[in-house]
């Protein structure tokens, strides 16, 4: 039997009815009307061909079939909630790997000194810093941030971003900003 999106929704509604102890409580909790909650339960019972709840005007009770079915529906609802929470956490606190490459000299003078501050700001970010004077294929190596020394040019260093997630791009931008601040604070004062 194929499960439709609508049936998944009904399963989550059913789990909420059991957890809240009433159709009205579930309706308030999930932001639906009592009639819509009742519709989902009736539709689910019709699709399954079994009664899941014994209902009276004052209470609900799980049937034997409803009890086993509730456990599965509860797990589905919890998994969906966990998935949403995980995404929210990613938006609020970055997690993952940020791959950076730069020339050895630039890395030792600018990047390495800024690593501690970056790790304090983003403790769940793992940094993979590749110090090399050779040109690296940022696509092939999966590099998020590449800094190239252009000391012979008037513009100084060139920064390039690989194909990365929005989060990696944001972190790479933040890292470049931190290294610029670090450079400015360590630059000798001109008198």
Explain this structure.
By secondary structure, this protein is an alpha/beta fold. It has 2 domains: 5-91, Orthogonal Bundle (Arc Repressor Mutant, subunit A), CATH 1.10.10.10; 93-186, D-Maltodextrin-Binding Protein, domain 2 (3-Layer(aba) Sandwich). Helix content is 58%, strand content 15%. It is built from 7 helices and 6 strands; from the N terminus they run αααββαβαβαββα. The protein has helices at residues 5-20, 23-30, 34-48, 64-92, 104-121, 138-141, 166-186, and strands at 53-55, 60-62, 96-102, 125-131, 145-148, 158-161. Helix 1 (5-20) packs across helix 2 (23-30) and helix 1 crosses helix 4. The longest helix is centred in the middle third of the chain and has 29 residues, at 64-92.
Brief digest:
The chain is α/β, with parallel strands linked by helices and 191 residues long.
State the strand order across the main sheet.
4-3-5-6
Count of runs of 4 or more consecutive helical residues: 7
Largest sheet: 4 strands, mixed
Overall pLDDT score: 81
CATH superfamily of the largest domain: Periplasmic binding protein-like II
Radius of gyration: 28 Å
Q: What string, H for helix and E for strand, traces the elements in order?
A: HHHEEHEHEHEEH
Measured between the Cα atoms of the first and last residue, the distance is: 80 Å
């Amino acid at each position: 039997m194929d499960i439709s999106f609508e049936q998944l929704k009904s399963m989550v509604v059913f789990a909420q009815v059991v957890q809240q102890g009433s159709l009205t409580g579930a309706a308030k909790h999930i932001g639906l009307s009592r009639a819509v909650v009742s519709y989902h339960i009736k539709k689910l019972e019709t699709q399954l061909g079994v009664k899941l709840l014994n209902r009276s005007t004052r209470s609900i009770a799980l049937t034997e079939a409803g009890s086993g079915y509730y456990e599965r529906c509860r797990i589905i609802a919890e998994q969906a909630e966990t998935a949403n929470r995980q995404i929210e956490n990613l938006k609020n606190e970055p997690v993952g790997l940020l791959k950076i490459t730069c020339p050895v000299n630039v890395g030792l003078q600018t990047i390495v000194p800024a690593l501690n501050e970056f790790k304090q700001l983003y403790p769940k970010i793992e940094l993979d810093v590749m110090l090399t004077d050779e040109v690296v294929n940022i696509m092939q190596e999966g590099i998020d941030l590449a800094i190239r020394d252009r000391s012979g040019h008037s513009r100084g260093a060139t920064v390039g971003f690989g194909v990365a997630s929005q989060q990696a791009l944001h972190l790479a931008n933040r890292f470049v900003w931190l290294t610029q601040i670090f450079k400015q604070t360590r630059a000798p004062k001109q008198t």
